[in-house]
Amino acid sequence: MKDFKNAIIECVPNFSEGRNMQFIKEITNEIEKIEGVRLLDVDPGKATNRTVVTFVGNPYVVVEAAFQAIKKAGELIDMRHHTGEHPRMGATDVCPLIPVSGITMEETVGFAKLLGKRVGEELNIPVYLYEYAASADHRKNLADIRSGEYEGFTAKIVKPEWKPDYGNAVFNEHSGATVIGVRDFLIAYNVNLNTTSTRRANAVAFDIREKGRQKKEEKGKVVKDASGEPVWEPGLLKNVKAIGWFIEEYGVAQISINLTNMNTTPLHVLFDTACERATARGMRVTGSELVGMVPLQAMLEAGKYFLRKQQRSIGVSEAELVRIAVKSLGLDELAPFDPKKKIIEYSLQDTMVKKLVELSLTKFADETSGETPAPGGGSIAAYCGVLGAALGTMVANLSAHKKGWDSRWEEFSNHAEKGQALMKELLFLVDEDTRAYNVIMAAYGLPKSNDTEVVARKAAIEAATVYAIKVPFRTMELAFQSFDLAKEMALNGNPNCASDAGVGGLCARAAVKGTYLNVITNAKGLKDNVEVKGIVEKSEVMNAACDVLEREIWEIALGKMK
User: Fold this and answer.
1) Helix (H, G, I), strand (E, B) or coil at 250
2) Taking CA 379 as the corner, what is the angle to CA 378 and CA 384, rounded to the nearest 5 degrees?
3) How would you classify residue 508: left for phi > 0, otherwise alpha for psi between -120 and 50, otherwise beta?
4) What whole-number distance in Å separates Cα of residue 373 and Cα of residue 107?
5) What is the helix, strand, coil percentage profile of the chain, to 5?
6) What phi and psi values does residue 3 have, to the nearest 5 degrees?
7) pLDDT grade, residue 540 (50/70/90)?
């Protein structure tokens, strides 16, 4: 079963209070109390009497923070006295969850239902599910659910077709009703033009946006259909809303864009299409800016896209892909672009425990040489695996750029991309090995003063030990896979780098041998465990085979150098 510990979702609840800053602060305080949640933005509006809050984190902590915020809003905001320009139906009017990374839309729906159930049952607030979480087609659209607003819900809620998904079909006059659901991530994005003309910026906006523009006759008269409604000519890109405007602060016109589904229309496709249409209309795109934050995946895909256009290897580091994306999209034209502040996943990193892989080589060595058993052989073996995969990736990238081998760039780019994937998971395992050891130690520290505690402690120790076997075994599997990369690069890569491929093979062997020792050591007390027995058998096969594989790579590399 997936544990979602590395998944990230965003939550954007809209509260029906935009004037009483004390109430707003009390609500956001509830969010910030939850460890692991990052509050990104609080945007109150006096005219709308509504506040939009944005926060991110692991799905479990986000759901908890959302529940506590909804609970506090229900206590503070009395909808019987609420007025405002924006349509509304409850103290927490709408609360969408948005998958960011490590979780699918369908999986996020499960968390929306978990939140809705708690709100309906524990807070006695009627809950409707919308968008991807909707229980019926007529409930997908937020506007349809909200129709009639707060004042009309006393009558609406008792209709069979509008029975709440959670909670009783009795309107809560104090808190109203709440809509919870799952939607796509919205990227607020502006494209900069070398013009001051709003009309010309609008022309490009109408070209690219999904809605397009009204169809006109030659003399400029709007074409209408049989019912007298204007006929629209759709634009080029799905899930794109756009309009042109002039920004006095920058002295240029921009295309202001909301991208509502980056999977349908990726950010880089949006940018390039805007460039093409601007050029066709005699203008030039000079750069762009992100309003708010962006998921890492959008930046990585953009980096790869622009590298492919150059016929360069995409098997480079994550940091390099982000750098290429920033430069290619011109995201640093108007202001410096700080990935730690603009990319959601990076903004969460400083809330996490300091990692071994973030230490300098000297500090990593010092940490290992200290008087504690962790980090130890497992972490070092994993890092040997990282280095083996890194050397194979390096040879692939150098081969992709070798003079005279231009036609083979994609072949080597594919090898480099696989190497980067191996490196990424192995880097995670460097720290995970130490964490697994700490979990074992915590299990041994559990109380054992009675029979119940003894049984629980024994079960905890066994579970922790099994995990401490699985971690080095996974390292072993990945390091073993890196032999293929090292051998391919020794045989067919840049001949000037044959020795690097050979060293990569040696590092892979060290990783396999080292983690085999860890597996065997931890497994000796669990010989009757069927799962552990299977891991040991597979480990023995890889341990025996790695000597042959490493020797083959060694001989190939040595032959290339003679």
Assistant:
1) coil
2) 95
3) alpha
4) 38
5) 55, 15, 30
6) -100, -10
7) very high
Is position 401 annotated as part of the catalytic site? no
**For the chain, how big is the Rg over CA atoms in Å?**
29
Average pLDDT of the chain is 93
List b or e across 440-452, with b for residues whose CB sees 16 or more CB atoms inside 10 angstroms: beebeeeeeeeee
First to last CA, the chain: 52
412: closest CA among 296, 272, 315? 315
Identify whether the C-beta of residue 262 lies closer than 8 Å to the C-beta of residue 344.
Answer: no
C-alpha 59, offset from chain centre: 12
Strands 127-131 and 178-182: parallel
| Dist. CA 234–CA 339, nearest whole Å | 35
pLDDT in tens, 139-197: 998 889 998 999 999 999 999 999 999 999 998 999 999 999 999 998 989 999 999 99
**Is residue 178 within 8 Å of 166, Cβ to Cβ?**
no
267-280 and 198-208 helices, crossing angle to 10°: 130
Per the structure block, which two tokens stand in for 366?
A: 């010092």
Q: Which residues pair with 256 in a beta bridge?
A: 190, 243
What is the C-alpha to C-alpha distance for residues 407 and 402, in angstroms, rounded to an integer? Answer: 10
Residues in the chain: 562
44 versus 112: the higher-pLDDT residue is 112
Cβ contact 473:512 at 8 Å: no
| pLDDT attached to residue 352 | 46
Structural domains in the chain plus CATH codes? 8-182 (3.30.990.10), 187-349 (3.30.70.670), 353-561 (1.20.120.680)
pLDDT tens-digit series, residues 392-413: 999 999 999 999 999 999 999 9
- Decide which of 501 and 358 is more confident: 501
Q: What b/e sequence results for 72-90 when a residue is b if at least 16 CB atoms lie within 10 Å of its CB, and e otherwise?
A: bbbebbebeebebeeebbb
Tokens 């905890």 locate to: 460
Helices (H), 192-280: 198-208, 267-280
Catalytic choice (78, 82, 86, 332): 86
Output the CA–CA distances (angstroms, integers) from residue 542 to 479, 487, 517, in the order listed.
10, 16, 12
3-state secondary structure of 336: coil
Share of residues in the chain with pLDDT > 90 (%): 79
> Comparing C-alpha atoms, which of 31, 24, 27, 120 is closest to residue 72?
27
Residue 138 falls in the annotated catalytic set: no
Determine how β-strand 213-214 pairs with β-strand 14-15.
Answer: unpaired
> Which residue is catalytic, options 93, 431, 433, 500?
433
**Contact between 509 and 547 (Cβ < 8 Å):** yes
